[in-house]
Amino acid sequence: MSDPDVVSAFEQAKTLYASWKGLNNKKRSPQEENEYQFVTDELYSTLTSISNDLEDLQETVDVARDAPADYGLSAAQIGERHNFIAGKRKTIEDMRHFLAQPDAKTSQPAKAPFAG
To answer: What is each CA distance from 105 to 93, 94, 110, in whole angstroms?
Structure first.
């Protein structure tokens, strides 16, 4: 089970990441440098927003985990929600790690975030 708002935000992040990656891997004109900075800032902002949404979802899952039947959920559904949150958090962590690398302009991660 996934949250539609988080899924939508991840789609936006994928688009921003593709733009960032394209700009990141080349020598940029002054206009492209401005675009690169804008895309970078938007990507960080989007990742922060997703992180906040995931924190809220985690709190909800934690409440439901204590009494899943009260919320019409099975243990398996709670597990699916937990796995969704954990997977998205890992992707955000990987993305932030890659964006923060001093040599990000010339290197690629071993496993690019959002790949696959």
So the answer is: 19, 16, 14
